[in-house]
Amino acid sequence: MPVRKNVLVTGATGFLGSHLAYRLLEQGHHVFALARSSKAAPAIRRVEDTLREVAGSDEALQEHIAQLRVIEGDISQADLGLNETSKREIVSSADEVWHCAASLSFAEDDRDEIFRMNAGGTGQLLRLVEQIPGRRLHHVSTAYVAGNRPDVAMETEIDVGQTFKNPYEESKCRSELMVAEAHRKGLARSTVYRPSIVIGDSRTGRVTHFHGVYAFIRGLWAALERIRRKMPEGTVVHLPLRVAGSTSTTLNFVPIDFVVDGMMAVAAQETSMGGTYHLTNPEPTPNTLWLSNITRIMGVTGVEIVDKKSFDETPMTRLEALFQKQMAFYYMYLQGEPRFDCRRTAAALQDTGISCPRVTVDFIEKMMGWYVNYLAGKIPA
Ligand SMILES: NC(=O)c1ccc[n+]([C@@H]2O[C@H](COP(=O)([O-])OP(=O)(O)OC[C@H]3O[C@@H](n4cnc5c(N)ncnc54)[C@H](OP(=O)(O)O)[C@@H]3O)[C@@H](O)[C@H]2O)c1
User: Fold this and answer.
1) Which residue, by CA, sits nearest to atom 40 of ligand 1?
2) For site-directed labelling of 280, which of 135, 154, 261, 333 has its Cα 20 to 30 A away?
3) Cα separation of 335 and 313, whole Å?
4) Which atom of ligand 1 is nearest to the CA of 212?
5) Which residues, 6+ apart, have CB-to-CB distance to 196 below 8 Å?
6) 175 HSE (CA, 13 A, CB side)
7) Are 100 and 16 in contact (CB under 8 A)?
8) Could you tell which of 9, 13, 16 is best to mutate to test the pocket of ligand 1, judged by most ligand atoms within 8 Å of the CB?
9) Distance between CA atoms of residues 44 and 63, nearest Å
10) What does the CA dihedral 11, 16, 19, 23 come to, rounded to 10 degrees?
């Protein structure tokens, strides 16, 4: 029977944080979820609504609700915006902290805000962690702190002088440096996790938050729907759409259950203290494989990845220009991504039965098929 812990989780309304928080609840732990209220709903409702979605039903969530405490806070504020009582309670009772909250904006225009949330927020969190007797911190970063590295990014490296595609990557790298320094000084006992591109559940394809590749598919779906309205159901649509990218590069996809189970299995090992772990796919997926299969599932032909030079020869159509504008932030990853060495993670997970699934055609069908059915209204929202 594992020891029941009191765990502070940030980002529990988000994708990774909500799945992690729910898994902690399922394992019997007590979760303090630090979250913001929105104009429409208080923090407690936002967290409970998200966890209900993750759990799949209200009954499933209710089984664990007594172990959940939602605490109003904001990572960008002094003391994380906690009132004195909440702060005292966390400092005196939290056994460990999982930091998942972050801004996932890639926009250069949001640079200051991204740094305030990611680097600034990590700084605020570290000040709290120092005051918790155990000082145990699990910091969720991203494999893309590797930026534009042309070589293989190792789990032992952070800043090797790489440049970055966007302020998000740069701010996450800065956060890791802050965590490493706090660890070195003994102010935190940390482990850092670096997932790559997180997709839905490997068993069902189900997904609760629609970032990254899902936004790309949604954009394509919207373009298709405009044409489909005029056609009989089931017709394969020809949509001539060139997407600027590289046909020889890959994207690194990891399912949410692998990421959460993998992080928790690593975290349970004493030897993980002070280490950084790539939760990445040892076999990244060629752009040509995922795009051709997604378009097949969607019943569309004519979508292809082309070199930017193609647009010098034949100027962009209005649709191509619109799609490129909407997808600008994702296009940068279609030009190529770093390669990630994940041997330390593989070694840590060796005897746990947890491994990252290979992205085969069947796997893409399950994962993206679920989302296409969802967009088509065949799965209730
Ligand atoms: N999704 C991926 O593919 C992926 C891949 C690699 C690494 N990661 C890392 O995983 C972590 C979680 O990402 P995600 O995909 O779960 O992102 P997400 O769905 O956008 O969730 C972000 C979470 O952070 C919270 N947050 C943002 N600013 C906050 C603030 N000032 N105070 C309190 N909470 C704040 C958000 O709360 P609100 O709901 O109030 O906005 C939300 O709960 C991040 O550190 C990210 O870098 C994600």
Assistant:
1) 36
2) 135
3) 19
4) 3
5) 142, 143, 144, 252, 253, 254, 278, 279, 280, 281, 284, 340
6) 38
7) yes
8) 16
9) 17
10) -90
Least confident span in 63-67, 215-219, 273-277: 215-219
d(CA 68, CA 77): 23
For ligand 1, say whether the CB of 75 is within 6 Å of any of its atoms: yes
Residue 171's SS3 state is helix
What is d(CA 56, CA 52) in angstroms, rounded to the nearest whole number?
6
Distance 166 CA to ligand 1 centre (A): 16
Distance of CA 59 to the CA centre of its chain: 27
User: What is the whole-number distance in angstroms between the Cα of residue 259 and the centre of ligand 1?
Assistant: 14
Q: Tell whether the torsion through CA atoms of 156, 158, 160 and 163 is positive or negative.
A: positive
Q: Are 123 and 138 in contact (CB under 8 A)?
A: no
d(CA 105, CA 242): 25
| Contact by Cβ (8 Å): 109, 137 | no
Helices and strands, counts by H and E, the chain: 15, 15
Query: For the segment 267-290, what is each residue's pLDDT rounded down to a tens digit?
Result: 999 999 999 999 999 999 999 999
Distance 372 CA to ligand 1 centre (A): 24
Atom 19 in ligand 1: residue holding the nearest Cα: 14
Atom of ligand 1 nearest to the CA of 121: 31
**pLDDT digits over 303-331, tens only?**
999 998 999 999 999 989 988 888 887 88
Are the C-beta atoms of residues 16 and 139 closer than 8 Å to each other? no
Smallest CA-to-CA distance from 239 within 155, 295, 174 is with: 295
pLDDT tens column, 189-210: 999 999 999 999 999 999 999 9
Instruction: Give the number of other Cβ atoms within 10 Å of residue 213's Cβ.
Output: 22
Question: For ligand 1, is residue 198 a contact (CB within 6 Å)?
Answer: yes
130 CA distance to ligand 1 centroid (A)? 22
Report yes or no: 98 and 150 within 8 Å, Cβ to Cβ.
no
Closest CA to 34 of 98, 93, 116, 92: 98
Q: Quick one: pLDDT at residue 1?
A: 43
Q: Distance of alpha carbon 332 from its chain centroid, rounded?
A: 17
Pocket test for ligand 1, best of 104, 141, 333, 356 (most atoms within 8 A of CB): 104
